[in-house]
Every structure is written in structure tokens, then in C-alpha cells.
Amino acid sequence: MDFWQIVLDWLKNLFGLDLLLGAIEAGEPIPAQAYLNLIFSSVTLILGVLVAYKTVYLVLGVFGKSRKYPSQPKTNRYMFVTSARNEEKVIGNWIDSVRAMDYPQELIDIYVLCDNCTDKTEEIAKSKGAKVYAHVNPNERRKGFGLRHLFKTLKEEGMDIEKEYFAIVIFDADNVPAPKFLEKMNDAMVSGNFDECVGYRNTKNMAENWIAALCGMNAYAHVINGQRPRSMLNTNQEIYGCGLCLRSHLLKEGWNWTGLTEDVDMMVDLAAKGCRTGYAEDAVFYEEQPTKFKQFLRQQMRWTKGGLMSFNKYSWPITKSFFKKPSWGKYDMYWQFFPYALATFYFSLSYQVISLILLFAVGEHGYHWWSFANFILTTFGGIYVSMLVMDLLTIIREWKHFHLNIAKTFAYLLLFPLYNVVSLPINAVAVFMKVEWKAIEHHYVADPKDLVKEEEEKAQPHQKEN
Question: Global pTM?
Fold first, then answer.
């Protein structure tokens, strides 16, 4: 039997055509399993076609280079903001790193919103010269509410934020920007005429333990399969909640995104409104990854639940916006926040359950009892193998950014895919759970100059230090 005949027979079986045609040829009633296979496989095929472009993204991300932006005058005024909840261990590190950037410091104002803090965050931030505001509301303890309170308060105080600042840069308190972060971000914002732009999300504590390494790998993978290819194609970007720069006119009426994942809310809302978002790969910043498995699970739960809530809220506005004024950016953003993995898992699970019911209830042929076990093993095995390949490509392509030695990197290689394997059951149960935002404790202090130096040495190992 030749290859194409094998493929044809597999497709007939997949779509239930073998059962359907066999029943017609034998003059027998068409079994329900044939219709079930045809319906489920057809829907899966359609979904696969709709997101097939992501394969092209992967190729571009591995072999391509992000868009570069010409230098611009350092004359724009920026507002740096963080919403901090009990961040006394790292808030000073963030403020110091902002003040150490290669950009005129008189054009930078630092604002710290102390969100229901009970430690010394406010005291430390004030001692570092930041403009500090407090938000005390036990029922509104998360980043989106904190930022809403800050910008509302500033407006009430008479600030015209659009006239005062060119743009607002939003960080988490555990972040530290590289010395040239704002210089490169300013180049991109001005040259690209972006409403919003995000930088390269790096990891400062990847070597701390295997959990931090797993989470860091996920951040690098986003560059490969999303941000770099979108930059090359000059289309709208995926937005995350730190290391982002937002034009001040978008916040003239305040901060309107308060969901569990306020960054997803903002990303889709801006895309639906036709805003232009970009990516500045040279604008590097470093974040701290979770180091405890419980924190990792809690973070995944929140991201999943928040993403589902965002999809429920914004899927129709962006769909309506697309049909009124179609653009690739809107199409791409829709599928970026569409819960594809979760939907396909439950869709496939439904097929298996219905097939089992048919098998035991009416003895339908075309399905075997072991297929359910095979489905589970194939699902998780497929995720593991595909992510192993993805992670290996990411290591090769982003190696200079890995603050992890070769021995640990390859020791962790077989563990890296577990991020996505574990995420699937977490996502599956998060749908039915009530999830609340809880702060992740941060502790890791690092000098971004040292991190940048380490990357430069890794990129040019043959050059000796002067």
C-alpha cells in the first residue's frame, strides 16, 4: 500500500466516511458514529485552518529578525508607573533601575501606587524620590483597580496627563529595565507612531530553580511564536502587563481595564478600537518568575480564568470591529486570546464521551473502548513532544538571553514542556472555579547592568573582558 493510500484511508476513518460509505454500500442504516466523526473532525479541521498561520509565525520567529527603529531625539517626557502590593523587597530595586537608564532623568517621573500595602513599600518608595499614592480598598486588591484609582486621583488633582506626558510606561514592581530600555522604546514609539508598544520580556532569576526556569522559558517562547513575527509583518502585538508603553491620550479619561488579566482586556480593547501596537525587541526588561509550585498554579489559574472572562467580554466587540473595518491585526488578536487549547480539549473530550456512550448503549461500531485512553495519552504526549521541539528551538535562538548555564539548561530541557502539559489540566478546572487575584511574593534583587553584561559576554564569548 503506497503512502497516499494510507493517508486517504486515515482521512476516511477520521471523518467517518468509511462507516458512512460502508453502510450505504451494504444498504444498512448509517451509524450515529459516522455522523459524529464527520461533525467533530470537520469542526477540528476548520479551527486548524483558521490558526494555521501560526506555523508561519514560528518559522519567522526562529529564522527572522525583529524590526529595528531609527534613533530619535530624547526629548519626550515619560511617566513610569507601578502598582505594588507589599513589595518592600524589590520596589527600591525597580526605582533605582529606572533612575539608572540612559535617558534624561528630568524627563522621567516615577509613580508608585501602593495597593492595600501593609509593609514598608510606601516608605521605601518615598525615600527613593518616587511620587507615592495609596489605594486602600480590601474589595479591590489587584493591579487594574490600583491603576484605575491612581489615574482617577491624578485627574481629580487637575493633571492633564495628555499634555504632561508623551507616554506612560507600566511595570510590575519586580521588574528592572535595562539601561537602554527607554531610549529604545522612545525610538520605537516615535518611529512606529504606535499607540502602545511592548519591550523584550527577559528573566532575572531563571537560575533560581526549575520552576523559575520553566516560567522563563515560556516568556522566551512568546517572542519566537508571536512578537518577533508580528514585528516582521508590522502588525499589532500581543500585550502583556509589564514593560509596556502607552500613549498618554489613551488614558485621558482614566484606566478602564480591571479584570483578572487587565493586560488581555487592554490588548483586545485597543485592537477593537483600531489602535496601533508595536514591539521593540531592543527595549529589554527583566522580571522575576515564580519559584514555588503553588505560586505557579495560582498564576496559571488566574491567567486562564481572566483570559476566559476577557474573551467573554471582548470577543464580540473585536469581531464586530473586524467586519466593519477588517485588518490582519484584529484577526490575529482574536485568535491570540481565543481559548483555543481549552476549547479543543473539551471538544475532543466530548467526542470521546459521546462515542463511549454510543458504544455501550447501542453497540456502535467504529469506536473501541481503548480509544479514550489513547486520546488522553495522545493529547498530553502530543503537547509534550511538540513543546520539546519548540523549547529546543527557543534555546538555540534566544540563548544569549538565558541567565542559565549550559548544564542546567539541558538538565531542564526535558522539564520545560511540563509548563504546557501541567497548564492543560489547570485550564480545564479553572473554568469551573472562582479565582481571585493574589499577590506573588517577590524577593530577587538584580542590577540590570550586570544582566546585560552577562548577555553581551554570552553573545561574544571569544572577546575577553577589558
Answer: 0.89
Q: DSSP assignment of 326-353, as one string? A: --HHHHHHHHHHS-HHHHHHHHHHHHHH
Overall size of the chain counted in residues: 466
State pLDDT tens for residues 128-151.
999 999 999 988 888 999 999 999
Q: Of 164, 181, 187, 191, give the one whose Cα is nearest residue 249.
A: 164
CA distance 235 to 232: 8
Give residue limits of the domains in the chain. Answer: 64-337
- For the cut 50, the answer to whether the pLDDT of residue 466 exceeds it is no
Q: How do residues 63-72 score in pLDDT, each as one tens digit?
A: 999 999 999 9
* For range 336-354, the mean pLDDT: 86
d(CA 394, CA 222): 9
Q: Flag whether pLDDT at 462 surpasses 60.
A: no
Kindly give the interhelix angle for 17-26 and 3-14, rounded to the nearest 10 degrees: 80
Three-class DSSP category at 457: helix
255: exposed, middle or buried (Cβ count in 10 Å: 0-12, 13-18, 19+) = buried
Half-sphere exposure of 313 (CA within 13 A, CB side): 18
| Helix H or strand E segment including 422 | helix 418-430
Please answer whether residues 255 and 150 qualify as being in contact, where contact means their C-beta atoms are separated by less than 8 angstroms: yes
- Cβ neighbours of 139 (radius 10 Å): 6
| Amino acid occupying residue 454 | E
CATH of 64-337 among 3.40.50.150, 3.90.550.10, 3.30.160.20, 3.40.1280.10: 3.90.550.10
CA distance 76 to 168: 11
